[in-house]
Write a structure and sequence with these properties.
Elements (H helix, E strand, L loop, with lengths): L1 E3 L14 H9 L4 E3 L7 E3 L2 H19 L19 E3 L3
Antiparallel strand pairs: 1-2, 3-4
Amino acid sequence: MVPYPPGFPVLVPGQVVSKEIIYFLAQLDVKEIHGYNHDLGLSVFTQEALARLEAKRSAVTSASSNGNGSGPATGAEQTLVANEHTVPVN
């Protein structure tokens, strides 16, 4: 996520987001943050949610590699969501 101006990243891929960072983002007074959708807020993933997502992905991979004739999931079945909390900012 990059606020404009001045244009330096406040979050980078793979960064662990703490409560302090969420508070900081809520306090930013910028016109626009690239990578942030105000209507959706911020999605925060807990370790438990990520573990459930990994388990679901493993199950899908296992089922498709067991030769049961069900190839990779398509459409809505392909989307696995681990979202635990949505935090509106501003």
